[in-house]
Amino acid sequence: MRRLIPRFLSNRRYCPATLGAQDALYHLNDWPSDDCPTKPNETGFRQGFSPGALPPDESSRFERSRSEGTDYHESVLLDEATHYLAPEPGKLFLDATLGGGGHSEQLLSKGAKVIGLDQDPAALSFARARLSHYDDKFGAIQGNFRDFGEILSTIGISGLDGLLLDLGISSHQVDDADRGFSFNKPGPLDMRMDPDSEVTAAELINNCPEEELARVFYEYGEERASRRIASAIIERRKDKFFECTTDLAGLVQSILPRRGKKHPATRVFQALRIAVNNELRVLEEALTEIPQWLRPGGRLVVISFHSLEDRIVKSYLKRCSKSKIDRPEWPEPRSNPNYCFKLVMQKGLIPSKDEVKSNPRARSARLRVAEKLSIEVQP
Predict the structure, then answer these.
(1) What is the DSSP letter of 181?
(2) Which of helix, strand or coil describes residue 94?
(3) Where in the chain do CATH 1.10.150.170 domains reside?
(4) What class, spelled out in words, does domain 177-277 have in CATH?
(5) Measured between alpha carbons, how far is 117 from 101 in angstroms, rounded to an integer?
(6) Could you read off the pLDDT of 153-198 as tens digits, one per residue?
(7) What is the CATH number of domain 7-166+281-377?
(8) What is the pTM (predicted TM-score) of this model?
(9) What tens digit of pLDDT does each residue of 34-44 get?
(10) 233, exposed or middle or buried, with CB in 10 Å at 0-12, 13-18, 19+?
(11) Within its chain, how far is the Cα of 129 from the centroid?
(12) Secondary structure (3-state) at 244
């Protein structure tokens, strides 16, 4: 039987049906069928745990990228993230936002084992090919990182020595006009990280009422001109729906003057991407799940790229790193039931000037690190 899983997990039983075998990452003919249910995957995960072959719809895109000599994505704060995760032979890490596999490659090169998770099939295709020579220590699964706990349980993992969340959108996603993330290139107003998810940016723009659009732009993009932009969108919708990224970018640019290098539509596109992928809620849900999966001494490293993400991460880590809670109405401080982390650094780490110069997209990144406490030191 062809080996379909990394050797470091080969002592566990798997059931392809519960892992989304329909995606051709597992092949039912290669598995014993004694105890495998035949009903479809009820979790909705489309998962595989093998370098495997590239999905047909992604092969040509990957081959084009490779033939042109381009890389999928230049990882941000690569050395810093690796340093704080402290990989060693035998340690197990979850790269919950695998992307092009840059961070995972660094961890694997130190002898660690890595499970990579990403909801973007194009990212998985690239990372599997890039890291195929580590197939005895690496496995990739398609899924949203909000579901990482259920995914780990499904494949028989009980604990991690470290977890990485790199929350930025990849350069490949931005540069691929067909994905609809870029305001500089004409493409469909899509913006879905998972191409199989239901709501696109076009559906939001063309169907949301004015007040809802203004709220999205203000809350998720911190756009001060949110009401003016929303009003202009509604007026334009009366004549023609929005279909192209540059149509929306052009409308925003006609309302807001361009100041400096930043495109006027930057905040609007950020807001739509966050709304389409429910990014902030996903982050909040994932963070609350992490403590139960990290072993004592295990580290959480989060790289955020805008203030909304960083605010959530900072608030969560602050809440979980205080042993006591004190409020004016209480006679004395009380034990914090959420106390489980110690902060490795009080302030976030930002990229060096040299990194920003070589990779301008790193300029807004901020890295935060927390270490899981042992049960003995918790109140």
Answers:
(1) -
(2) strand
(3) 177-277
(4) mainly alpha
(5) 10
(6) 999 999 999 999 999 787 778 878 889 899 888 999 999 999 888 8
(7) 3.40.50.150
(8) 0.80
(9) 333 322 233 23
(10) buried
(11) 19
(12) strand
